[in-house]
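[SOLVED] Predicted holo structure with pyridoxal-5'-phosphate

Edit: marking solved, answer below. Original request kept for reference. I posted the sequence and ligand SMILES and asked for the 3D complex as structure tokens.
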Amino acid sequence: MQKFISEKLNGMPVSIFSTISKLALEYNAVNLGQGFPDFNGPEWIFDFALEAMKEGKNQYAPSVGIHSLKESIAKYQKKYYDIDLNEENILITAGATESLYVTFQALLNKGDEVILFEPYYDSYFADVTLAGGKPKFVTLRKPTFDFDYAELENAITEKTKLIVLNNPHNPTGKVFSKEQLNFIASMAVKHDLMIVSDEVYEFLTFDDVKHTPIVTLPGMKERTVTISSCGKTFGFTGWKIGYAMAEPEIITALNGIHQWTTFAVNTPGQHAMARAFHQLDDYLPEFRMLYQQKRDLVYNALKETSFKPIKPDGSYFMMAEIPAGRFESDIDASMKLIKELGVATIPPSVFYGKSDEGKSMLRICFAKRDETLIEGVKRLKTFGS
Ligand SMILES: Cc1ncc(COP(=O)(O)O)c(C=O)c1O
């Protein structure tokens, strides 16, 4: 059979999320691994979807996305960030995942280099590689997950075409400072690069931390593809509705791939999300408070265990240090915690291409019901006691 399978897949790893979720099921573990809520998004969004279905909005949507959803996105981008967008600046895709895939397919030629901050969201590596590009890594160093400016500039070569930014950041929960964003932007201008900015957790920042879309910095409008996800914002990851925003010429290029990939995204879901964005002002304070409480619950409870947490400013993830000398690696720790304690976490070393830093941490997702979080941490507390 192997002879029938494309070389593109040589060395392509199985997603860690599939591996861990399968094992978590097998051992009936509390799943603090995969990054999605174990509870529903708001009920009123179901109603919007149902109404759309009943109104007969059930056939193919326009390939680029429906008008009202793009209008809603443009409206909130203006209101929250003072960004001016028209319909031509937006492409609706099957989740942020498809936006990422089509962006790399549309922008990369074989041999182009792409800077990834590590730990990186795993689909970047796969997408860049599938598009013929070559990932180059810049490490976000624990515990602050800041990066060395010289390391970024030194990673840029004649072949570099893109810098991929994920802000707020999965898996560390880091929110890049304005100064760091300015430096990244200055590198893009100086070396004539594009930025792919994955901002799916744009609304999940905690305390007084504010999200700044990099596209709002000087010189970035022409150089940025910003990607976000209705699934993350409204807690319906399974609906897979995401979007890319960029200059019209870039959006046309992305659509050149999208039209041959999924062609269009599910129609009633798009209508529901178009209406959901109208409720953003009322919805967001509750949404953020819910997740901030979950972050605090897990952070405070983990401090009482052998797995010391690093407090995140954004996203719904948190890194925790593995107790020294107790496990061979993060993968070893993650497997043993599933099999022996019944708690699933993600070993982050798989998100690094250069540094070993991931081997001493675990990623914990706190987008779970409080009972799930309390039970998971309770089980972790029994370790070593
Ligand atoms: C950083 C990041 N980007 C993209 C995605 C995928 O988003 P979607 O579910 O909209 O495809 C995720 C999902 O976990 C993510 O964490």
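OP edit: Residues 280-303 form the longest helix (24 residues). Thanks to everyone who chimed in.
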